[in-house]
Design a protein that fits this description.
alpha/beta; Rossmann fold; 6-stranded mixed beta sheet; 4-stranded parallel beta sheet; 14 strands; about 45% helix; elongated
């Protein structure tokens, strides 16, 4: 967001909205058929208590959404001067929130000298215009706010291109009534033809710019594919960090790789993918990729625009799904991440659940935590639990899996012995005459090289 004439950040009023019928319908579909029938048939005090608890759950859900929306506003550089909560059975077609609540918001905007109203919901173009005409302040919906944050945090040329594409695709259906404003988007592209309206001119300019950006992004994808092809010529599998925004992915990435990627409590601090090589306990080399965080109701335009970036997720051999274990919404956030992973068609990719920020839990709860199955507890900030995480990656990663071998190699094979030292775990070593007999745990790529020297081959090592 651009700064206003006054010094300091823009002043924003927040509006959180929840539609009861939609949320209840969603919960009903999660119940087994018999349970749903029993619930609808229940009468008396028990049903009243259940209704009360349902309202409590709705309130908690809306409070969590509002807290997240406040953090989004701060990440965009706004100063929150107030908020409104609106619960309705269904959206108002004209204004989403209803005339009475809109009048309250307009009065509050005037009294607090608010520069803009942020609505935690996607608005239609007509709803946005109707609200703006009433409150006499700029109105920004959830999608536009997230796009604004992405624009602030983009660092590379690729990131800027992807954000601009998403912004333009968002703006196209909203051009009506904004011809004067949108005329600035086209820059020097094209001139106004005879008889054309400003709206037609702006739309033509934007379509032309969208085509140009897509061509540039395709070039980025081509270069990335070439780089990936060179990487894949050597057996270096990619492990990608995924998770809800602000779950601590970049902090974890830095803790493992010492890469120095920007880490921040602000949402979407990481937009551009970063890849670093690391060595696992088995001495296998892998590539670890840090990716953009996901969020509830992530705009589809962003998922589409960031396809080039998210290809690292699509090509990964293993996903590390990072969650904030202290968040009361951790379960819902995991579902949101899984929804995006489903859109990317990677839900069948092996995953490890990384429960981050374990150091912030109460001591009694923290001491009872144990890694089990594909779940690992860590504290990226304090670098606790990283050894267990690397062991879990080693056990879960199937590409270039380690094999247990007994080999006998002449001491004259200095280069091969150096390879074993660098790329394998040496479990036992004996010197016999001019040979070295070793028991090693070596990745499959090295095991193939060692085949002529194998004395005895055992099964693959047990999962650690």
């Amino acid at each position: 967001m651009k700064s206003t004439g006054r010094d300091g950040p823009e002043r924003a009023l927040l509006v959180a909205v929840e539609f009861r019928r939609q949320s209840r319908a969603g919960r009903e579909t999660e119940l087994p058929p018999n349970a749903a029938m029993a619930r609808s048939a229940a009468m008396g005090e028990a049903s009243k208590e259940e209704a009360g608890s349902e309202e409590d759950r709705e309130g908690e859900s809306l409070d969590e959404s509002l807290a997240e929306f406040q953090e989004l506003a701060r990440s965009a550089g706004a100063e929150v001067v107030g908020h409104f909560v609106q619960r309705r059975d269904r959206p108002d077609p004209a204004t989403l929130i209803g005339k009475g609540k809109l009048q309250e918001i307009a009065a509050a905007a005037a009294s607090t000298d608010a520069d803009l109203v942020l609505v935690d919901h996607e608005l239609t173009p007509s709803q946005q215009r109707n609200i703006e005409s009433e409150v006499e302040a700029r109105v920004i919906d959830r999608t536009q706010l997230i796009l604004d944050i992405f624009a602030r945090h983009a660092r590379t040329r690729e990131g800027h291109l992807q954000v601009e594409l998403a912004q333009l695709e968002y703006l196209l259906p909203r051009l009506a009534g904004r011809g004067i404003e949108m005329s600035q988007l086209g820059g020097g592209i094209g001139t106004r033809g005879p008889g054309e309206t400003q709206l037609e001119t702006d739309r033509r300019k934007i379509y032309r710019r969208v085509r140009h950006i897509k061509e540039q992004i395709e070039e980025v994808r081509r270069i990335r594919a070439q780089q990936r092809s060179r990487r894949e010529s050597v057996p270096l599998p990619t492990v990608a960090l995924v998770g809800y925004t602000n779950a601590g992915k970049s902090t974890l990435f830095n803790a493992i790789t010492a890469a120095g990627v920007e880490q921040s409590a602000r949402m979407f601090a990481t937009l551009d993918p970063t890849v670093r090589g690391i060595t696992l306990p088995s001495k296998r080399r892998i590539l670890l990729s840090d990716t953009v965080g996901f969020i509830r109701s992530l705009p589809t335009t962003l998922v589409s625009a960031f396809r080039a970036t998210l290809e690292e997720v699509q090509r990964a051999a293993l996903l590390l799904h990072v969650s904030d274990v202290t968040s009361p919404s951790a379960h819902d956030q995991q579902k949101q991440v899984e929804q995006v992973l489903g859109e990317l068609e990677v839900m069948n990719t092996p995953q490890i659940r990384v429960m981050n920020k374990a150091d912030l839990l109460p001591e009694t709860q923290r001491l009872s935590l144990t890694n089990a199955g594909n779940t690992v507890y860590v504290s990226a900030a304090r670098k606790h639990g990283l050894e267990g995480l690397l062991e879990a990656i080693d056990a879960r990663l199937e590409i270039d899996a380690p094999e247990l071998l007994r080999v006998r190699i002449p001491q004259a094979e200095g280069r091969l012995l150096a390879q074993i030292e660098a790329r394998a775990r040496i479990l036992k070593r004996d010197y016999r005459e001019s040979d070295v007999q070793m028991e090693v745990e070596a990745p499959a790529s090295l095991a193939r090289i060692l085949e002529p020297f194998v004395v005895k081959t055992r099964n693959k090592p047990r999962a650690r």
